[in-house]
Write a structure and sequence with these properties.
alpha/beta; 9 strands; five-stranded mixed beta barrel
């Protein structure tokens, strides 16, 4: 893997000098933060050696380097998912490339469904922990000690001082921001009513199909991580109403300006 990472990095560096300190992964329907960036370079995923290619319509599929809040950032506008057929190692591969390019801090967004009745559609939730129910792990296989330790500690995968900062910023902007546990499942189907109840019983506050592989890779690589979910539907309702993807995208789009503002303010203040 290290050789592949270096080939990806070499391609990007040959296109222009980059020194990003912050990486950002933008999830489903959450790509408009790019409009706030002073863009220097754009790279379609398919042009980058060894990069997966996003197959989800709502994910743009480009890597963007630029300036946001006075900081150099490297942004994934669109991510990859296990349900697309990729291994979790492939899903986390761009985080490896970010690290090699100099990224030390990673911000992640995603869309999710609420399991906790105290969390409502349209809310933002900062992740304090997660439960991994994906049938794969991005660290499975031989470990390269130059990338990270064989058994990385996961006691605090999300950087606690940053959680405090983002909560203070949210309060200042009067943005409703909760804390909770994210459960990662395979997808691509949404969950049944019984599955929602089960996921709540095991400790989940929200459920989604992403984020955890990238976080595991980031922790393995020694990055600091902050992740925020946009709640797009409520899985605790009985009877459970049907949910359509256009509805999810519409809720994400409505909440997106709040998330964009928080990320922008956070980057300027960290």
């Amino acid at each position: 893997m290290k050789n592949k990472i270096l080939e990806s990095v070499q391609f990007l560096q040959e296109k222009g000098k980059m020194n990003p300190s912050i990486g950002i992964i933008l999830g489903t329907g959450l790509g408009s933060l790019v409009g706030e960036i002073e863009v220097i370079y754009k790279f379609p995923y398919e042009d980058i050696p060894h990069f997966p290619v996003s197959t989800v319509e709502s994910h743009k599929g480009q890597l963007i380097y630029g300036v946001l809040g006075g900081k150099s950032v490297l942004v994934m506008q669109g991510r990859f998912h296990y349900y697309e057929g990729y291994s979790t190692a492939e899903v986390g591969y761009p985080v490896r490339v970010m690290k090699e390019l100099g990224v030390e801090n990673l911000l992640i967004s995603n869309a999710c469904g609420a399991l906790n009745p105290a969390i409502k559609k349209g809310d933002l939730m900062v992740l304090k922990d997660h439960i991994n129910l994906l049938p794969d792990n991005p660290l499975r296989g031989a470990n390269d000690e130059t990338l990270g330790p064989r058994f990385p500690d996961m006691s605090q995968p999300y950087y606690q001082p940053w959680i405090k900062i983002i909560e203070e910023l949210a309060a200042k902007e009067s943005v409703r921001l909760t804390q909770g546990v994210y459960v990662a499942v395979t997808g691509p189907n949404l969950e049944t009513s019984a599955e929602y109840r089960y996921l709540r019983m095991i400790g989940g506050d929200v459920v989604g199909m992403s984020t955890v592989p990238e976080v595991i890779v980031a922790v393995h690589a020694g990055l600091k991580v902050l992740a925020i979910s946009v709640v797009t539907d409520e899985g605790y309702l009985e009877p459970l109403p049907p949910v359509q993807i256009p509805e999810i995208l519409a809720v994400a789009a409505e909440a997106e300006p709040k998330l964009t503002k928080l990320f922008k303010d956070f980057i300027a203040n960290v």
